[in-house]
Amino acid sequence: MLDDWIIGIRNDFLTDFFKIIIHLSNDYLYITIMAFGYWMRPRNYLFTSLAFICPSASIMSFLFKNIFQIPRPDLDLHLVLTQDPFSFPSSHVLVATVFWGTIFLHSSRFRFLYFIPIFLIALARVYAGVHSTLDVGWGVLIGALIAYSYYMRPLNPIHQKISIVFLCMLYAIVSIDLMWPKTVLASMGILLGYGLSTYWIDRSPLNKNQNFSLLFVFYFSLAIVLLKSLSFIEFPYKNLASVIKYAIFMMFIFITIPALVKKE
Fold first, then answer.
1. Which of 45, 125, 149, 244 could pair with 131 as two cysteines, CB 3.0-4.6 Å apart?
2. Cα(88)–Cα(106) distance, rounded to whole angstroms?
3. DSSP conformational letter for 255
């Protein structure tokens, strides 16, 4: 089998290389690229759409996992830690395909380069022993379908908000007795921050009421996150704090930083 051959070529150099690839394929990398892209071209639809489609795809991937509940390969093969016990489809590969595939669809130069990170992440997940080639293959297929579908028929802001609520509620219903991985909480926070930010993205400069609302949301959310970080306090809303933390990140990207730059 191809899986056995990929695992069979393991050596120290490849192990270190693919671990780096896996660690780079996380939400912080995608948020950073999206943020700088938006700051450089604030009216570019690509980077605002990524803030919606990528976390939505992430939640979808874990929703599929909880529906199919296909276990990961044997634990003895794992080279990296995993957030959940299910493997189908690969969330890393699905989100990478959506992210880089969306950029591919909006680009006109050097388009073949965007296939490289997708291939490396897919190969790395199989090499690390946490997925099969079937998992990553379906991750690519589903991710490509999501990216192309949204490229052909993007949702307007109202429909985006409706889909965010529907997707989060559906995940909560399906996964009520299952674990909620950190990636799901991060994705929900990103969608929350994006949903709140859409009211300000096309409104410049901010008026006094908008500034007050933004500061209130920020400081209230920050207080919750700080309380959560104090280890000696028994905080019962860890999941809520994680969601709010990522919502703050997104509001900083789409509201606070552009507003500060325009005022200078």
1. 125
2. 28
3. I
Cα separation of 261 and 240, whole Å? 30
Domain ranges in the chain? 2-263
pLDDT confidence of residue 5: 72
Please report where in the chains the tokens 């309380």 appear, as a residue. 227
Of 158, 154, 178, which Cα lies nearest the Cα of 106?
154
pTM of this prediction? 0.81
Among residues of the chain, what percentage have pLDDT more than 70? 80
**Which of 118, 119, 99 is closest to 54 using CA atoms?**
99
239 within 8 A of 224, measured Cβ to Cβ: no
d(CA 40, CA 253): 12
pLDDT at residue 44 above 80?
no
Closest CA to 160 of 7, 22, 52: 52
Report d(CA 17, CA 15) in Å as an integer: 5
14 pLDDT exceeds 60?
yes
